[in-house]
Structures are given as structure tokens and as C-alpha cells.
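Sanity check record (used in CI):
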Amino acid sequence: MPEHFGYTNTIFGTQSTVNGAAQDYAFGPPVGGTWRYTGPDTYFVVDENTGASRFNGDPTNEQVSAQEQIGGIGQQTTEIGGIDRQIIYDYTFTVTDGTTTWRVTVIDVDLNNDDDLNDAGEDGYFLIFPDGMPPADTNLTIGGIVDNLDSIAHVDLGASIVCFAEGTLISAGSHTIPVQELDTGDMVETRDGGLQPIAWIGKTTVVAKGDLAPIVITKGTLGNDRDLVVSPQHAILLNDWRAELLFGQEEVLVRAVDLLGHDGVYRKTGGTVTYYHILFDAHELVMSEGIWTESLYPGDMTLQSVNPRARAEITELFPDLAQYGKKAAPCLRAFEASCLLRAA
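Expected output for Hedgehog/Intein (Hint) domain-containing protein:
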């Protein structure tokens, strides 16, 4: 089964400048120079071969190795404009404001799939910030290259998935079913629509390390009957008067990763974890381990976090995703979730 690794905290290389000019990331930017970027962050997914855990680079400079090419045993791609493009890790350098230092990881995309990175815009197509986003529109000082190996672990750069861990009990009304035993067409209890049939279900197995490691919400922490284990980006419904006071909504969705620091919530690392995606005809809240949590929402970012075969199946089921509908409840951003938890 293919592996896929989603990246947030990312911009396009064209959003950045070095000493006020566009930078050719085929070469490391000059130490001591001024680096800055403008504009919003973006998101992309690397689709890998079964069992892959490392983002492979270019041991032969500016070339896509045969094994990473489309059809190779270690095929590495990302989808841009509806086409799978070959993608490689290049190198990592740093920038600083004098107090905080951020790593900047240079990712090259073979836009025309000609097995080299010599064409315009291919070097540094994406820039990843493994330590979080530095401030936009701010002059930062360039440090040296800190990693230029032939590969790096995906989890060391950060990646995410939205789904339930194997073993999670899902309510089917009168009884519960382990998520791995569910199939397309099975009826599942939803908060707003009663029993609803599953339109699609998929799974992914990853190394439980770094940003891919599951979040555990221990029994009773949020009223759950057992430990709830979900991917970091999976959202849980919270009903709290403070949410209405702060955000004008009594019920809000909060991503599991944003609950870290709350008593009874921790990240579980080690071994592997199998995550399951459940999709309905609309975004639903399902009862998992006794509390309401979200189903898969096939928006642009979430749809990118499933492998190409799964993505094709979903788009066949829902050819006009723009008409899929809104989320079942508003989802808080990280800083909003932090405000809510501090107020609790």
C-alpha cells in the first residue's frame, strides 16, 4: 500500500527573496544575507512507495535518481495541476531574527518529469519550515546549510493525516464496530443525520514518529468511554460556554494536536500506526469511543492527504467537490484552541 506524507508550514519558493531578489535554490543562499517571504502558507503531499519513511534526495546533483522516477521502485511524486510530478529533497538551511532560528528545507519538483531539476522554477519549488512558520514580511538573516544528505526522514520535516487509528470503536446505533471492520455502505451513527451509510473508507499505515505519531485522549478526558487514538489533525467536537463567549459558537471542532498540553492528552510514539479515513455524503460527526469526532472532509488540503488511488475514488464519487457542503461545525485554528483551553 502506498504511503503519503502531507506537509503544512510550507510556501512556494517564489514567495521568497534573498537580498531583495529572487533566489535560485539550486545553490544555497549566501550566509549573512537577508531572506524574507510574503504571502500565505500552502500544503502539499508526497506520495511514496509502500513502507517508505524517508524523503529521498539527489545523490547525483540536480538529477532524479532512477528509483525515485515515476515507475521506479522508490517512486516519489506530488500532484500539481492534476499531474503527478517527481519530487526530491534537496537541502536545509537556517534563517534567524537574532532570537529564534528556523530551518528552511528546500524541496525540488521536476515540473516536466524529464528526470532533472535544471528547468526554471524546479529548484526550491516548495520551502518547508520544520520548526514552524517564521514571520512573513520580515527580514531574517541567513545561516549556513545544516543538512545536505541524500535523504531525510519525513517525520523530521513534519507531515500529517486526518483519520482514526485502528481499534477505534465507532457507534452504529445499537452497537459499536471497530473501525477496521467497517466497509462502504455500512450504517454509522451521526449526530445530525442519524444512521448514515459510509460512502468511502480508506487506510494508511505510517511510522508513529514525530508529526505522524497519534494523539491519545485518555479515557474520561473529554467524556470518552475508552482511550481515543486519532491522527494529529483529526478534530473533536467540544461543547463549552466559553467557546460561545470567545467565538460566538457553543460547539466547535478542535484538532487533536491542539489539545496537547491538556491533562490526559499525549502523543504516542513508537512502532507503526494504521489510520482509517471515513467519508460520508456530507461532513458528519460520528460517535467514536463515546464522543463526537469528525469524518473525513474532502477539502483541498484534506484530499491531498490521501494517496492517488484513494483521491481518484473520492473524486469519482464526488465529481463536484465544491458542492460537498460545509463542515459540521466550525474548526478552531491553533491559537484559537489555545485561547479556549486556557480559559477552561
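The chain has a mean pLDDT of 87. If this sentence no longer matches the regenerated C-alpha cells, the check is flagged for review.
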